[in-house]
Here is the input.
Amino acid sequence: MSKIHPTAIVDPSAELDGAVEIGPYAVVEGDVRIGGGTVIRSHAVIRRYTEVGENNQIDSFVVLGGGPQDYGFKPGTISYVKIGDNNVFREGVTINRATGDGNVTVVGNNTMWMANSHAGHNAIVADNVICANGVALGGYSEISTRAILSGGVMIHQFTWIGDMVMTQGMAGASCHVPPYCLLAEGINVLVGLNSVGLRRADHISREDHRQIKEAFNLTYRSHLPKSKVIERMDACTDWGAPAMKFRDFIHKVVSAEKPYRRGLCKYSHKHKTR
Here is the structure.
């Protein structure tokens, strides 16, 4: 049975599955679904057209499903936020619903959103992502699995962040960041691979790490045009899935159409890839 504080405001049309807990002065609007085991703390707001999975922790002053911060958004649009399971949203987090009828802003499973972090309309955030305090994800940005975005990081709209990317605090990206890389030194500058993360990852072998480094060096240290880089990568038929993910990301960036045609972040040659 759900536990709802008497001061909470819950629309009768909201669907609460299982043991949902809703704290004082929280608001749950209509056309909302909340999975079992989710806890909504005091003063949090779950707006219309939001779906929240199981076992999520939603802290005070979080707003899930707020309207897009987009001048092009048309009143009356039916769009959504869909959130998976086992996520943590700390104080003041905001996740906006999508622009465009039927479109969705997506958050996967097992993510951590620290205080005052934000995802804009139509963003897609995969599983096991960490957004530290004050991270801001622009509209239509895509954050891949196991990315770690440190405090104050800004990701521009229509920008892709690859698997296991790690960032320095206060960094920013308006160009795409390939998987397994370190983003630092201000805006759009890589300083190498996330080697510590790669060594610690159970699904990345030493051979995978070597192949990823080979892919990185082809992309950033060979001085070849991207067409030649892709040709060389395509010839590496012995690469495993992790290195192929890097290659596929470069393919995607090179073939991207506007507004996703943003290019790759540059590499600072002052640092060596380990």
The mean pLDDT is 96.
